[in-house]
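A quick word before the example. In earlier lectures we treated sequence and structure as two separate objects. From today on, think of them as two lines of the same record. Here is Lipoprotein written that way.
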Amino acid sequence: MITIQVFLGCNRARREPILSTTIPEIDKKREPKILTAFFGLDNALNQRSRLLYKDAPDQDGMPLVFSHELDPSTLESSDFQVTTQSGQVFQVEYATLLPANEEFELRTVLLIGEYGNHPDNPPVSVTIIGDLMSRTGFNFKGQTIKVIPLEEGPILSYAEYFTFDQDYPYIEEGRGCDCPLEETQLVVKAVWSGGVRATNGDELGLNELNDFEVTLVQEADTLIVTPFLFADLEDNDNNIDLCLIESGTPLKLKVNKNVTIDPRGDKNPKTQIEIKSRW
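And the structure line, produced from the sequence above:
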């Protein structure tokens, strides 16, 4: 119980995007693409969003999740174009990697500005029109993705697993801190289409653990396991770490419906995704 209290009490902030010194193998071996674009908030970013962008309050918020970590030096608001249901085209006012700014998290871009209105003329697609690069040198220019509508709840966009080794940039305390070092055998990082919390508005905790199911292979056996703890909390982003006490190879993550909410209060549908190996 003491360990859980410590990890739920993280409170150190980090503001600048941090690019890890190591490029994960998965970034070198598969096709880079946009995974999701989510119309998360319509004219409803709150006053706290000033920490991201001074003119953000009362504007739209649209997170995009990418298959690969991005090169922060190539991110510009002019890289994106949003098209609405009526065919109206909006340029993006501001694009940021915040708040998902930790090492191995730089795959989510938050677009802030005006991109149409629900329900009369919502955004329906996002196109990359500038040279937005992955850290491995892939150019996302020319890619287009459909936008998940405002009223739909958050879904899983990406998941990967990893273990702690001597080179891992372990964060023992502070916002976004890691799973307990001694107890954790595997970590599954779940990346959502937008920021999520428990349905009561609090951070995910003990009540939600059993709603996250990981299919895990141990030699000839296939198991269904649940995390013993959540980590990477209290940083208001879309990354949640699942701390596993079991060892093996995670294959799939499934989350029951009505377990999380997005910033608008919409509940997630039942959602599942393949788990990649970071290394």
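Notice the following. Residues 39 and 85 are 13 Å apart (CA to CA). We will return to this example when we discuss secondary structure assignment.
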